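Researcher: Please generate the 3D structure of the following complex. Treat every line as part of one assembly.
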Amino acid sequence: MPVTDLLKRGRARAEPAASERAPSAASHALEPLTRTLPEQIAARLAERILNGAYSPGERVREESIATEFAVSRGPAREALRLLEKDGLITILARRGAMVTNLSADEVREIFEIRAVLNGLRDRSVAECEARKQLLPLLEAEVARLAQCARVPALGEQYVETVLQINRLLNRATPNRRLSSYLASLEQQTARYSRLGLSTPERRRQSVQRWQRLVKAIRAGDGAQAERIARERVLESRDAAIALLAAKVATQPGARQPSRIATT
Amino acid sequence: MPVTDLLKRGRARAEPAASERAPSAASHALEPLTRTLPEQIAARLAERILNGAYSPGERVREESIATEFAVSRGPAREALRLLEKDGLITILARRGAMVTNLSADEVREIFEIRAVLNGLRDRSVAECEARKQLLPLLEAEVARLAQCARVPALGEQYVETVLQINRLLNRATPNRRLSSYLASLEQQTARYSRLGLSTPERRRQSVQRWQRLVKAIRAGDGAQAERIARERVLESRDAAIALLAAKVATQPGARQPSRIATT
DNA sequence: TCTTGTTGGATTGTCAACAATCGTCTTGAC
DNA sequence: GTCAAGACGATTGTTGACAATCCAACAAGA
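Model: Done. Output below.
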């Protein structure tokens, strides 16, 4: 346990409070500025899980993360509960928590849910009034995407742009609940979804699809936007399960709950 | 605080364990038989919320449910967290928990998500192989539904049959994750969704839709099944928001977080 | 009268210790 | 050599007390 993280700002505050609650940009209503301890811990852990610092199936004990973050087991426990809500952690009663390890079937299930939900999202964006403000940004990002697609070396930037477009669309939906659901689902499959756009051919095809989506949104054609979104997600589903199948073939030791890999 | 519920079976067990873990019917794998205290408490509370014993917006203090169920605040707190995951309880950091109070917009959002998810569910049922076993049950229930629709007095039984059909379909999906998502969403809108089938005319139309759905499933026509499912949920959405609008008109005091309604 | 700072009560957040449970290891018999 | 039963160690579940925070009522000033 090398890194003893100190994140307890917000407690033990006796300082004159120099830069407290920056009054600048309009923050969202009702969102607490001072995040609670479990939330902060959960955020850190989520980062690590998505980074790959924790591998799937790995066990996570309450005590160990409690000592690492210098808190009691209570907040550590709640942090795990929080991550369970997002699907990043799986908790078995009286048997502890571990990093969620999805089977190929489960990954496919999530992608299929994402497909219809992304369809709904893009349809709602295409049919809402506020899309006028969104379109310029969206077009700019798609143009950047087209540029990246032409240069094979810009793979990282390409992926980043796709993520950015998705963020844009997530924020644009009038259906707030949908965007949070989608964020959670995307996080769950993040580990598996990045590698669908490997070949230049695939990318060209994908760019074309994004362009068609933008066109549908501009025209207010919700049904068309929905169709395109679904197509796209279903294709990344196929890529993901292909990837997973390959991975399973190489390292078939998909370890289950037992007493291994505790770090 | 009249009813001091005793649900602490499973602890303090020194008895010879007469009927422990009934070894009969094949239970689901990996589902713990001995549910934890928070889960039991959450189940009881969920019941009350859905019954209407707790009204929306009502505050729920940890201490009070702790004393009521004769446990410490820890399990009470976790029970609330569990209910928050299902959307039945809203928790604000350091400001406590309350029964979720959905605005008309939020209800609509949930129904729209349910629409596409139900579409996916019924499509997947129509396209899966196991639907052969399902069809007889489904047809029987729909027949019962048709009978109930003819007799206005059987309103309660009609609603119950619709719920039963939904349960059947939820269980039939090969996508396990989808069924749990749907269960959660249905629970969240349960309070608002029952009253869409008030008039005999509506019921007749609804029965017809269910019959068309069964036909589509039998034929393996996934696209058609999806269309029908969406139509259905979107219609109940309209009924629900109409109901909500009427309710808001009569009692406009939609109370928010503050210090009211503590029991 | 309206605004602004202060104080008090109530409620949630956190902690450390105890109790219950689970998995594993050892022991013994067949 | 294999399998079953029991004990041990490790980990989670629960508890009661303490600390931090928030809300509301009250008081003082413009």
